Amino acid sequence: MIDNEVFKAAMRLFASGITVITWKTTAAPIQGITVSAFSSLSLNPPLVLFCVDHQAHIYPELSQQQHVCVNILAAGQTALAYQFAGGDRNHLEAHLHHNNALALPMLKQAQANLLINIQNIIRQGDHDIFVGLVEESAVYPERAPLLYYNSNISDGV
Questions:
Q1: Which of 15, 29, 32, 115 has its CA at 20 to 30 Å from residue 106's CA atom?
Q2: Nearest by Cα to 56 from 35, 39, 38
Q3: Domain count for the chain
Q4: Looking at the domain assignment, is residue 156 inside a domain?
């Protein structure tokens, strides 16, 4: 089997967009986690997937959610990516809106916001794969992407 460090070095060379998965709880108006392991899965029905480490501090709460919002981050949202990668959820109100059928917190200025109904959670290795049906979306293609490459976040093209 491949060495862990060699595997991580290879995976760092795959450039990807950055998402923040958000939801609301009774204890907080917003909760979320930064995720780069995100992909479309199916067109019919419209399915996406994202992967989260079992050891992530927010994993137990996320795994109990039925609906979440996938926010595909745009250039200029690096600070939000880092904020949701950690535990700080303070001073986020100015970055949020709730203009969706479930009033879930969505990030303003994202490239896209996808309202997701979690259909399945598949345990694989040290991560879970969350499969979600896209029920609603808003897209802003004029906004440039935020990218993750070789352990660095940068504004895209």
A1: 15
A2: 35
A3: 1
A4: no
Phi, psi for 14 (deg, rounded to 5): -90, 110
| pLDDT tens for each residue of 132-146 | 999 999 999 999 999
Query: Does 134 map to a domain?
Result: yes
DSSP string of 64-91, one letter each residue: T-SEEEEEE-BTT-HHHHHHHHSS--TT
CA distance 82 to 112: 18
Domain assignment present for 81: yes
Domain that holds residue 32: 4-151
The pLDDT assigned to 35 comes to 95
Q: Is residue 157 part of a domain?
A: no
Residue 74 sits in a domain of what CATH number? 2.30.110.10
pLDDT by residue (tens digit) across 95-123?
A: 887 888 888 999 999 999 999 999 999 99
Residue 66 near residue 117, CB atoms below 8 Å: yes
Q: Are strands 67-72 and 146-149 parallel, antiparallel or unpaired?
A: unpaired
